[in-house]
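agent> call fold_tool(seq_1)
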Amino acid sequence: MSLSSRLAIRIPELDQAAMETARQRQNRLTKPPGSLGRLEELSIQVAGITGQPQPTVERKVIVVMAGDHGVTAEGVSAYPAKVTQQMVLNFLRGGAAINVIARQVGAKVVVVDMGVASDLNPQPELVDRKVAAGTANMALGPAMSVEQAETALAVGMEIAADLAGEGMHLIGTGEMGIGNTTASSAITAALTGAPVTEVVGRGTGVDAVGFARKIATVQQALSVNRPEADDPIDVLAKVGGFEIAGLAGLILGSASARIPVVIDGFITGAAALVAARLEPRSTGYMIASHQSVEIGHQIILEALGLSPLFKLDLCLGEGTGAALAMPIIEAAARLLREMATFASAGVTDKS
């Protein structure tokens, strides 16, 4: 049995009874029906995900997966590859943007080495699940083997299961990897059929020459590897990244555990696209936090049928958008659970 077939067995449908109960309660709360807009929709979705008509999402975690990309040899990034390792250390010290926002919103940060090219010293805050020391250069051949892609997916699923065992209510997706917008562009083009020029953005801020080189590199990678659009694991193996594959597994594992998973920006969106192609039911468990300024992100959101909660012109990654969305999701659940009904408050309903 294929990996995707095994996953299809594990991911349940959304709990329609819980959603209907939540919807009915929303209509009895002390407000005009629909007046809380997307918050009402969110609360009903979370009820369906968790199977709880009045869900709780107080225990929050951002999983930041890191990996290096051999395609950086093509000059597709404004930053050198060594920045991946340096930023992982910054995460572990608590000095990155995601650490600041996570502290603000009360979320735990878990840092996972999926494929950093450098050796990282063991420390309690680092989860070492390195598949290999970075991917190969996808402009010259496959980024990884099919076996490595499946291993990375399995790692992500295992981490989701571990977090479920810890009692986490809400999982956010984050990443770090110099060159990973190039890989994400190739994944998006391969899975959606969108032209390369419509999915490649500036990433870390390359200049005009670097931008043209990045587009040409993605086109070359797709031409050399010819990934199969109907086989997401083949796409991952040929033009993906270890952290992207790990995040796809994390999303699938979260869905299997009935935990809502918050999608961040372009790179985690590419991982979500892979997850959705492996198991379409996983999209019901996804909440899109924001729309990145990376042009390919809108194509991903449309392909997934997801509407972002906000647009703040973010393109940093790390899970920053996902972390910012968490209080909104928690507020939606709290409103459903804690607001008084017309009957309990003694307030006259319009009817």
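agent> call fold_tool(seq_2)
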Amino acid sequence: MPRVLTFTTLYPNAAQPQHGVFVEQRLLRLVDAGLQAEVCAPVPWFPLAYPMFGDYARFARAPYLEMRHGLRVLHPRYPVVPKFGMSIAPWLLYRAMQPVFKRSPILRTDFDIIDAHYFYPDGVAATWLGHTLRKPVVITARGSDINLLARFPRPRRMIRCAAHACAAIVTVSAALRAELLNLGVAAGKIHVIRNGVDLHRFRPLPRDVMRRQLRLNRRTLLCIGKLVPSKGQELVIAALKALPDWDLLLVGEGPQRAQLEEQCRRLEISERVRFLGSLPQDELPALYSAADILVLASEREGLPNVVLEAMACGTPVLAAAVGGVPEVVTAPAAGRLLTERSSSAIVGGILALHAERPSRSATREYAEQYGWASATAAQLALYEHVQRVAVQ
């Protein structure tokens, strides 16, 4: 079994426990299956930990070293220059990590493969580190790293170079694979390995009990995601105005929160919208189980975990047909795809899905095909192949 160093800026830490949790989830399944792994999860450098500095203060509060679920996780610092960050971020990350890799007794432990997540800047910097250390690199593309950042000339050039230099690429959807092919990446290097869902953690809970605990007594929509324009929560709020019998739960934080709250006040529906903030994974199954429909109105996605989690809890989804979403919402038991990204389409989709709502048992049964077993086996097989090629 190869020894892997996971290298990514998308990984949870004690100060940001929900940051990049999807990367940690995949790695923990691999470790359970026998993979030997350590984690280098760099954090932007910031000198002050006072709460008034928001996200930057959380960077400062992140520990340099911590143990998470039995894994040793290192959080070295790297500089970020906001104004020019996109163009020089890979170089800053690479330069900051060079002395860390040379001097850290933690990272001097031998490993076989660098496992990088997110193509830019992480994957680009990882290929440079791999060249320096003579280690093969596997990069996982997850969504906006390819379908957004690759639209800009300099990141696009560097992504292409990293794709050429790495040993293998994983995409979490066939849609992301197609985007990489459009960039000229060799087809044989790309492996589609979808995210899985923890079918034990995310399972149907007693609906009536969950609704009482959450004080829900009307039809309920659920949205989970960062509060940013690309996630489309403003479209769902606008749709709610035309759905007087429905309430909305919003999970997540982000810079658009104040704007969304003002939209609710303007539409006079504030009493029907509950902003719950960022919540830990363990609190989500109760919400999924209590809700009638999960709504995802994103402009772009890789393969959103919330879709798989909702279905695993027996809750159907109404989702924009973006990224890998159409690859997993393929049957009435899963829910419906939006005909377009608009509030009117959301209204129509909610009413149609509610009128022909699948049973919770049917939705759960549909979701069971997306457990972690097959994804974990495919990922391990890829690592073993990369290791064999590297030693030849």
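agent> summarizing second result for user.
Residues 207-369 form a domain with the Rossmann fold fold (CATH 3.40.50.2000). The first helix runs from residue 21 to 32.
agent> awaiting next instruction.
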